[in-house]
Design goal:
Number of helices: 9
CATH class: Alpha Beta
Order of helices and strands: EEEHEEEHHHEHEHEEHHH
Strand content: 25-35%
Structural class: alpha/beta
Distance between the termini: 27 Å
Largest sheet: 6 strands, mixed
Radius of gyration: 18 Å
CATH superfamily: P-loop containing nucleotide triphosphate hydrolases
Length: 248
């Protein structure tokens, strides 16, 4: 299977001295779901912004569908990458209905296409509702549908579950996984919650201080002997043994 995303030796420094991201390498296949996990300040958001084209790397390169889109000497703008990004605040337009938000950005929005997306996110009954009338989970689903309407090759989610209660988080995780798999859309999301990663990701990337400690399948992560990752697991969750048993 061909890679939709390839990252080689990617680094980013904001002051020319310390790297916020240092020599990262990984690839993503079509339809694969990848979780980027790390504590605050680990470089998760920097990596996501580099992939989206919102930052220029200090070193290394990014390829999408085999085409070079970022290096220290060139950068393809976000709108030309066929990438969709959903931010933490969802960024829905408050004066637009759900269906208008989903159709925003389409040159010729068609009712059938919008209806299909509403059906996909299970929100047909809310087509005429406004964002202020929705729950946090519903807003998140609308933001994802609006991005999917543009038919991206790769979907990027910035802490998609951080502002939701436990029950809603679990439901939304499963819905996002189902949508990505149904459309065969590659997905990268960043999180500090290992439960998010384990429940829906195919692979997990662990970052600490801008360094990629591990890039592996969820199962391989559970059997790691890396002391730094074991320590990170303990720092990120109060019940590390229960978490690992979920995987095994």
């Amino acid at each position: 299977m061909s890679n939709i995303l390839e990252i080689e030796g990617l680094s980013k420094s904001y002051d020319g001295k310390k790297n916020a991201l240092n020599n990262c390498n990984f690839s993503l296949e079509k339809g694969e779901i990848c979780a980027i996990v790390g504590e605050s300040g680990s470089g998760k958001t920097t990596l996501l912004r580099l992939i989206a084209g919102l930052e220029r790397p200090s070193g290394g390169c990014i390829k999408i569908n085999g085409q070079l889109v970022s290096s220290d000497s060139q950068i393809t703008p976000p709108q030309k990458r066929q990438i969709g990004m959903v931010f933490q605040d969802y960024a829905l337009f408050p004066h637009m209905t759900v269906e208008q938000n989903i159709g925003f950005g389409l040159k010729n929005p068609e009712n059938n296409e919008i209806h299909d997306l509403l059906n996909l996110i299970k929100m047909n009954a809310y087509a005429k509702a406004y964002p202020s009338e929705l729950s946090g989970g519903q807003e998140q689903r609308v933001a994802i549908a609006r991005t999917l309407a543009l038919k991206p090759n790769l979907l990027l989610l910035d802490e998609p579950f951080s502002n939701l209660d436990v029950g809603l988080k679990s439901d939304l995780r499963k819905e996002i996984q189902s949508i990505a798999k149904e459309l065969n859309t590659s997905l990268i999301f960043i999180t500090h919650d290992l439960y998010d990663a384990i429940e829906i990701a195919d692979k997990i990337i662990f970052l600490k201080d801008g360094i990629m400690l591990q890039n592996s399948s969820v199962h391989d992560f559970a059997t790691t002997e890396n002391a730094e990752i074991k320590k990170m697991i303990s720092n990120l969750t109060s019940n590390a043994n229960q978490l690992l048993n979920l995987i095994r």
